[in-house]
Design brief:
This protein is an alpha/beta fold. Helices cover 41% and strands 14% of the residues. The chain is built from 5 helices and 5 strands; from the N terminus they run αββαβαββαα. The protein is globular, with a radius of gyration of 15 Å.
């Protein structure tokens, strides 16, 4: 039996947001140059940091993923967290609003407090389809396991091929799977 959505979200927010973690700029900001720009928001209507609330392990503010895709990703991320205690979240944003993808991802991760206090073991996978940017922000505690090179490989080998074919959900799933494999 699953818990009611509100109770689940309260538990998730307590687990995820109990500490702010400084994120390193350790991972890449590869560009999916031939991926379609699916975001429709204008620069002036791009969400600010406060306008992108944490919706769970998957926050799809750019509306890329179907409800079933979100549920599948969320279940895999929950299983990872139960197994390793590492927190990995996936977020899509309609636009970066003119901000640098590395700063945007780091600031978002810090404001959400991804990772455990004292372990700094959070990871945020961010996709900004309008700007065709993807970024993996890694907490200091996972730098050895998810180095710059490892993150760049995940983006280049797992995500960008699908993005270039116009399959953003497939690229997100492949990148998430690759991150989970390295964290388990």
């Amino acid at each position: 039996m699953t818990e009611p959505h509100d109770a689940h979200m309260r538990r998730l927010h307590r687990g995820i947001a109990f500490v702010s973690v400084l994120f390193t700029l350790a991972c890449s900001n590869g560009q999916a140059t031939s991926a379609p720009a699916t975001g429709t928001a204008s620069e002036s209507s791009a969400p600010s940091m406060a306008a992108v609330p944490l919706a769970g392990r998957v926050t799809d503010a750019a509306h890329i993923l179907s409800p079933q895709e979100q549920a599948t990703l969320s279940a895999r991320l929950e299983k990872l967290e139960q197994k390793t205690q590492h927190q990995l979240v996936v977020v899509t944003v309609p636009s970066l609003g003119g901000r640098d993808v590395a700063e945007y991802t780091r600031d978002l991760a810090n404001s959400w407090g991804i990772g455990r206090k004292g372990y700094n073991d959070g990871v945020v996978l961010l996709i900004a389809p309008k700007e065709r940017k993807v970024r993996i922000a890694v907490g200091y505690g996972l730098e050895k396991r998810l180095s710059d090179g490892a993150c760049q490989q995940i983006i280049n080998r797992e995500m960008l091929p699908s993005f270039r074919k116009g399959d953003l959900p497939g690229g997100i799933a492949a990148g998430t799977d690759a991150l989970i494999a390295r964290l388990e």
